[in-house]
Design a protein that fits this description.
The chain has about 270 residues and is an alpha/beta fold. The protein has one domain: Alpha-Beta Complex (Spore Coat Polysaccharide Biosynthesis Protein SpsA, Chain A), CATH 3.90.550. It is about 20% helix and about 15% strand. The protein has six helices and ten strands, in the order βαββββαβαβαααβββ. α1 links the parallel β1 and β2 (about 40-45). The radius of gyration is 18 Å and the shape is globular.
């Protein structure tokens, strides 16, 4: 549909960190975006190992001290780096331990329209839809495939969450407050919340009252799960393509060493 344009105000982001997903996932996502976006956009991959012109180097930060390679704990928290405001890199931006204090990635973030996509997705329809949403509040994925009663009753024990950070839509600095909150309470947050979804659900989304939440959620039928279905309880068939939806998530890929399953469906 449309070629990437670095000058575009619509910015589509993905993140590749480590070796869970090989480079073909980034290339395929980039091609899917090109084939399914009719509005001008810029495409960037935020990565620890940049190799392409559209890659953005994510240097080490003090948050990396909390990374546990054996469990891959914390990697998804790096998504929050995207929410920072731009600051000029100066000598004072570095701590005494050699880590960046500020990881501001986009000089025009105050006016940009951002759409984040996980690598393990299949795009069915025009991404123009996401850039035409009413952005009074940012959007995050809601797991309409989950039984809401299970999420409610399990929360205190398992911190079950109905929201999913695989797709996030925000404008400018709408989510800057989230980054600042983690930065201020980093020890407590990384100790308490094993996943970014647990954290975002607890502090920024009220499963009992969407109107009071920082986030809006994408409506039913927009985004579905390959492994869990579409809408509970009437459309929960697993591993079924739904081309009338906009995006398919492979949101538990990797749990059973099945990260290659998505490749068979490209």
């Amino acid at each position: 549909m449309t070629e990437p344009n670095d000058a575009a105000s619509n910015i589509i982001l993905c993140m590749k960190w480590g070796d869970k997903y090989d480079r073909t996932y980034v290339e395929k996502l980039r091609q899917q975006v090109k084939d399914n976006c009719s509005v001008p956009y810029a495409f960037y991959c935020i990565t620890d190992n940049p190799t392409e012109s559209y890659d953005i180097q994510l240097p080490p930060t003090e948050w990396d001290l909390y990374y546990e390679k054996s469990t891959n704990f914390f990697w998804a928290y790096r998504k929050l780096y995207m929410f920072q405001e731009w600051k000029t890199i100066t000598k004072s931006s570095w701590s005494k331990r050699g880590f960046r204090k500020n990881i501001s990635l986009f000089p025009d973030q105050g006016t940009g329209n951002f759409l984040y996509l996980d690598l393990d997705v299949i795009i069915h329809q025009d991404l123009k839809y996401f850039f035409e949403l009413n952005m009074e509040k940012p959007y995050i994925t809601y797991g309409w495939w989950n039984d809401p009663n299970e999420c409610h009753k399990n929360y205190s024990k398992f911190q079950s969450t109905p929201i999913n950070s695989s797709i996030i839509r925000w404008d400018g600095t709408q989510l800057l407050e989230i980054y600042k909150h983690v930065e201020k309470h980093i020890d407590v947050i990384f100790f308490t919340y094993p996943t970014i979804d647990n954290y975002l659900n607890h502090f920024w989304y009220d499963m009992h009252n969407n109107e009071e939440s920082t986030f809006n959620v994408f409506p039913q039928g927009d985004i579905y799960s390959w492994y869990k279905g579409n809408i509970f309880p009437n459309d929960t068939t697993e591993k079924k393509m739904r081309h009338d939806c906009k995006i398919c998530l492979f949101n538990n890929s990797g749990e059973n060493n099945d990260v290659e399953e998505l490749k068979n469906l490209w």
